[in-house]
Design goal:
132 residues; 4 helices; elongated; mainly alpha
Length: 132
């Protein structure tokens, strides 16, 4: 199903461009999408009156329906089986693999070896009873 993603995306882009063109070509006298949902006056039915009877009104309805259907389908269809990674993510993974030496301690930024000074170790706690 991953092979369907690119053609569906191309159809989605073409549909959105056509939808923009059709919407911009309509008159602003209630024939557009706002008129269909009550923005163009007091109509009793949803597509009643003179709004949806024109070609551009019907084209808006169909292109809008196709737009929503394609949006849902594109959200469900997987893109690719292996996702591409950015160059930054690839270099970070390579550094992470080489950045931990045998001791398990991370390296200092910009160095390839452990620091020459040894890390201080914690002294065992004093369990003796006499002191004060």
């Amino acid at each position: 199903m991953a092979f369907l993603y690119t053609p569906l995306l191309m159809l989605f882009i073409a549909d959105s461009v056509l939808l923009m063109i059709v919407i911009l070509l309509q008159d602003s006298k209630g024939q557009g999408l706002a008129g269909a949902f009550g923005g163009g006056g007091f109509s009793t039915s949803m597509f009643g009156g003179r709004g949806a009877a024109t070609f551009l009104g019907k084209a808006t309805t169909w292109l809008g329906t196709i737009f929503l259907a394609l949006a849902v389908i594109i959200a469900v269809v997987p893109r690719q089986s292996r996702q591409a990674q950015s160059v930054i993510m690839q270099s970070a993974q390579q550094e992470q693999q080489t950045a931990v030496p045998e001791t398990g301690l991370p390296l200092l930024p910009g160095s390839s070896t452990l620091p020459s000074a040894t890390l201080p170790t914690a002294a065992p706690p004093d369990t003796g009873g006499g002191g004060n």
